[in-house]
Amino acid sequence: MYIGIDLGTSEVKLLLLSDSHQLVATVGEKISISRPAPHWSEQDPAEWWSATGKAMAALRALVPTEFSKVRAIGLSGQMHGATLLDSSDKVLRPAILWNDTRSAVECDELTAKLPQLPQISGNLAMPGFTAPKLAWVAKHEPQIFAKVACVLLPKDYLRMLMTGEKVSEMSDAAGTLWLDVAKRDWSDELLAITGLNRSHMPRLVEGSAASAKLLPAVAQAWGLSAEVIVAGGGGDNAASAVGIGAVSTGDGFISLGTSGVLFVVTDKFRPNPASAVHAFCHALPGRWHQMSVMLSAASCLSWVTKLVGAKNEGALLDDVKKLSDAQRAAAPIFLPYLSGERTPHNNAHAKGVFFGLSNDTDAAALAYAVIEGVAFGTMDGLAALQSAGTTVGRLSLVGGGSRSPEWAQLLASILNTEIVTLEGSETGGALGAARLAWLADGGKESEVCQAPAIKASFLPNPQQREALLPRYQRFKALYPAISAQFSA
Asked: Which of 247, 282, 439, 459 yields a CA-CA distance of 20 to 30 A from 238?
């Protein structure tokens, strides 16, 4: 048996997996977010640990016999968060999370100090990453920065409390802006521009390797053997990829959750920072991945559902199905930038836009425009990945948006590729973390990283694509026409 721990932004999720690929049980424990000032997003790392302990006790109580057979634990988690420790491993301040945008100025300052930053790190400096957060702390909380002895990512803070070891792995470390992503090693140059060095960093392992064993006291408290190993694990998206079997070059998935992600596995480091594409290490050795990121995806559908007073998202999508081709062609164009945008615009000031409203525009037309606009934003991301030489095959669709066949078909037609939904894809990073634990315990990748069964397949519809392409061209023309107004 193998446990996957997924430390999300709102919940710690645990999953128990058998070596016959059976999902034995899952449990979750909610955690809270603090927003003490505009653009701030923080959490208390002590709450991560408390929630993990409660979830572990719940899992043990749910399936005690299977729980006793656990041989390894894997970790997945929200990326980019800055957990600052002093020389006694005491947390110095609340962790600054991935969706905290206070450090925009520091991003520009870091790039000015080291213009080759995007080429080494594979990414533009953005407020979501870890390094600008430390630059902000150095500037605004110098008394805290002076005490920083180590910086850990959220899941790696859990690992330290579990094992006593400070360790990270390649996929999560790639989201700090301190990693030389091509070399899979810390970059002395990138560390230096934030006033840090290798002594402030954890040691690195591959995600499928063993990182340490449980501390005896933790093993006893959780009811596990002290011989249980803890795998390197992965950042949330890389771990999710392992969970759905996206482990070979060209494998990929689209995640339509609060944000939207297009993730494609690559055989080498393929940066394209000019288009705000993320180039990270995969959680498996010798592989990398590219990622385009939309800051609002399925959350746009939730927003328009509330806006028009619909009963729920499903009911609104039922109305969308009834629209004729002519009504779809007359629907507004929607820019899905409700929270700003990353790929391809890297503009925190971008806003959502409905263009082309008329007296005939109704709730169903607005909802269609929204799911179409998110599909168009995903197409922008695919184009950015392709411009870096990345090719994609069939793409899996995961996240809340995967429940909509209408959305899946739109994506298949505009991206001109097969889209499939998978059994059990809602388990996310927790399944991938458990699989990485299995690999660390000696499992073979070909056996462990199987793709789940396909639930449904959606092929490109040539007629639908022909109707969508002129609307996509208008979508692409809108942003440059009005972008100057966003910052104003």
From this structure: 459
Residue 432 lies in a domain: no
Could you tell me if residue 70 is inside a domain? yes
Read off the pTM.
0.88
- Residues 201, 277, single domain; the answer is no
* Nearest-angstrom CA–CA distance, 253 and 241: 7
Using the structure block, give the residue that is written with the tokens 């449904």: 456
pLDDT, position 425: 76
Encode pLDDT of 444-468 as tens digits: 999 999 988 999 999 999 999 999 9
Residues with Cβ < 8 Å from 124, sequence gap 6 or more? 107, 111, 118, 273, 276, 346
Instruction: Please indicate, yes or no, whether residues 321 and 210 belong to a single structural domain of this protein.
Output: no
Q: CATH number, domain at 28?
A: 3.30.420.40
Known catalytic residues are 236
224 plus 251 within the same structural domain? no
Q: How many domains does the chain have?
A: 2
**Three-state SS across 255-304?**
EECCCEEEEEEECCCCCCHHHCCEEEECCCCCCEEEEEEECCCHHHHHHH
Structural domain range at position 38: 2-237
Query: Which band of pLDDT confidence, cut at 50, 70 and 90, is reported for residue 283?
Result: very high
Q: What is the pLDDT of residues 199-235, one digit of tens each?
A: 999 999 999 999 999 999 999 999 999 999 999 999 9
Whether residues 22 and 46 fall in one domain? yes
